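## tool: complex_structure
## caller: assistant
## args:
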Amino acid sequence: MTEAEVFEVLGDVANEVLAVDPATLTDATTLEDLDADSLQLLEMLSIVEMRFPELAPLGEDGLPDLVTFGDVVRFILDSAA
Amino acid sequence: MTRPDDERVVVTGVGVCCAHGDEPEALWSAALDRRSRTTTLEVEGFPTFLVSPVPDESIEPHLDRKQRRYLDRVSMLASLAAGRAVADAGGLDHAEPPDRGVVVGAGIAGIQTMDAALAKVYEHGAVGGSPLAVPMGMPNAAAAQVALQHEARGPCLTVATACAGGAQAIANGASLVRRGEAEVVLAGGAEAAINKFILLGFNKMGAMSRRLDDPEAASRPFDVDRDGFVLSEGSAFLVLERFDRARARGATVRGEVLGWAQTSDAFHIVAPDPEGASAAECIRRALRDAALEPGEVASINAHGTSTKLNDVAEAKAIVANFGREGPPVTATKGFTGHALAASGALEAVLSIWSANEATVPPTANVAEVDPEIDVDVVIDAPRSVGPGPVVSSSFGFGGQNCVLVLGGAA
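## result:
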């Protein structure tokens, strides 16, 4: 899975969960910019897991400090590695 | 003897969200007309059920996107009714956030969230788990959401006493106000349990009406041919505060919670004590709390579920307090169906309107009162009564009993 692929999937999920236009998302967009609370981040990760069960369980040992959209993309990539 | 003004608990806001509309006046008008909204629900592979749902158009268009996504249906109904009660009270700004309380009656609570979450896990295994299942489905979610919406940082309680929940929420909310633990309390009940799993459970208990050929006539409390209740849903909330403070801020007083009591049958997990002894004791204690003699009561809004056992036991509890020549009795579940933990709150609203209008709404669908029921059941048409308070009873599975004594605005 490439970073671009994960970015695209997460953009779709953010659209579903937060009603944001994926075209407006950049690596540096913060979760705070998106008005996403901690529960919504977990919700997004659980939807990613449903789509990519091989990544599950995401963050079972606790989540690192994820501030930007790019942080979340790299966290998912690292989990897949 | 009336309590001193700083011990009187008055109602300064009323809000509803139910099958009969989003205004108390609409509910009251449906009561006078005995207008049932009961219909059938078909679920593949299940028996046909009788239900009285809140129309979806009364819910989703009134919520924002986040509420539609993150509130269980029961929290949606609670949010709408509580919001309307707060608006009716002119807001809660007169009380500091730590002086604002919330008490909500819950019966089945967040079953729709839990059912959907379980189905996903059964289908997909662990990967189907949802981080939203607990925060949306937990029994106190509705109360917590109402507290969030109105910045209520005082006591926030959920009273999980089944069908007595809405009444017990009002009783305990009124207690908080009388004791000074909160200056203003949003108290009510909410239920959204029209779910195939719950319906099947009640059906297997033999508690639900099977009058499928005539849904609107299915709920018939005290009628000789009653055969069970109809499951409905909804929510109602009252804003409660002390009379002296309400008067000082120039609030419009809609009614008064004159007294209340709570008892438990300790008899059987679901069957009522056939003699209604603890229910009778509850009525007696509520009258004592309100400092009223039985003869001063204008009418009774009975729990009246339309089940064989409840209605007979309840009539005995009424006779034990008021004799056979007691005040007129109505059971508004005949037109509303049984909204479980919301029912006591909806009936409190109807009782306040009844006290203000000095009118008892008729019990719907009663063709012939069961000869075992020796009370004066109001049927056919509304009945005018003298001014006076209304006794509103709620009894729940678990042997939960709660009686409220409600007065009008006077």
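## assistant note: Chain B is about 35% helix and 20% strand. The longest strand of chain B covers residues 9-18. Handing back to user.
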